[in-house]
């Protein structure tokens, strides 16, 4: 699984910490983490939680990654923004139990965490346990196990609803303010991370044109 990490401006200083805990939790399972920033509070590019949602949608819709780990101060804004864009089914995660149940019951493709609210002594431990429980077993296994089939059926229904209620990503990108889109991907590392993994030539060409 290819997993993207995206942090917004208020929590950019925690990038190294979050990346360390995420890699430690997922690499033993053979997953790869792609760090899309922000990398520090001094970055030229400033990601807001709305830009996090757009970037998550770009990465997931083009299959450049399979899963996105994002968040903001409370995790709420990033979660709302992610779900506003096509191709993203994001859960708001506060605990390892949240993480495990989201993966098994909802089987979404993104999570938004709180990196400021209640992030005090032991905050890095909570991150570690969240990531461990989120990725410890394949998604969609069901919980409790006897509820697996109806939960999987509901997931398929939600996927179908999302396809109807959201426009294709390329239409969204063209309809948005172009400076907003450009500022979301205006990072020196973006091209090296994104284009080799992107599976949508039309989206890739459009982003390159910006």
TrEMBL record:
<dbReference type="GO" id="GO:0016861">
    <property type="term" value="F:intramolecular oxidoreductase activity, interconverting aldoses and ketoses"/>
</dbReference>
<dbReference type="InterPro" id="IPR003500">
    <property type="entry name" value="RpiB_LacA_LacB"/>
</dbReference>
<protein>
    <submittedName>
        <fullName>RpiB/LacA/LacB family sugar-phosphate isomerase</fullName>
    </submittedName>
</protein>
<feature type="domain" description="Ribose-5-phosphate isomerase C-terminal">
    <location>
        <begin position="164"/>
        <end position="210"/>
    </location>
</feature>
<dbReference type="InterPro" id="IPR036569">
    <property type="entry name" value="RpiB_LacA_LacB_sf"/>
</dbReference>
<dbReference type="InterPro" id="IPR022133">
    <property type="entry name" value="Ribose_5_isomerase_C"/>
</dbReference>
<keyword id="KW-0413">Isomerase</keyword>
<dbReference type="Pfam" id="PF02502">
    <property type="entry name" value="LacAB_rpiB"/>
</dbReference>
<dbReference type="Pfam" id="PF12408">
    <property type="entry name" value="DUF3666"/>
</dbReference>
<comment type="similarity">
    <text>Belongs to the LacAB/RpiB family.</text>
</comment>
<dbReference type="GO" id="GO:0005975">
    <property type="term" value="P:carbohydrate metabolic process"/>
</dbReference>
């Amino acid at each position: 699984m290819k997993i993207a990490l995206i942090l917004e401006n208020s929590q950019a200083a925690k990038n190294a910490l979050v990346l360390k805990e995420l890699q430690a939790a997922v690499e033993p399972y053979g997953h790869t983490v792609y760090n899309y920033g922000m990398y520090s509070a001094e970055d030229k590019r400033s990601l807001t939680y709305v830009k996090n949602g757009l970037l998550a949608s770009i990465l997931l819709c083009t299959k450049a990654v399979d899963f996105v780990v994002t968040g903001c101060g409370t995790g709420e804004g990033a979660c709302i923004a992610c779900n506003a864009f096509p191709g993203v089914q994001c859960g708001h995660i506060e605990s390892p139990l949240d993480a495990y149940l989201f993966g098994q019951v909802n089987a979404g493709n993104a999570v938004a965490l709180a990196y400021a609210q209640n992030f005090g002594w032991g905050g890095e431990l909570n991150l570690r346990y969240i990531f461990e429980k989120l990725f410890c077993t394949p998604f969609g296994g069901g919980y409790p196990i006897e509820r697996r089939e109806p939960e999987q059926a509901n997931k398929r229904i939600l996927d179908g609803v999302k396809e109807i209620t959201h426009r294709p990503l390329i239409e969204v990108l063209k309809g948005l303010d172009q400076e907003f889109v450009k500022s979301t991907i205006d990072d020196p590392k973006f091209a090296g991370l994104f284009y080799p993994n992107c599976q949508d030539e039309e989206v890739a060409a459009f982003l390159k044109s910006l």
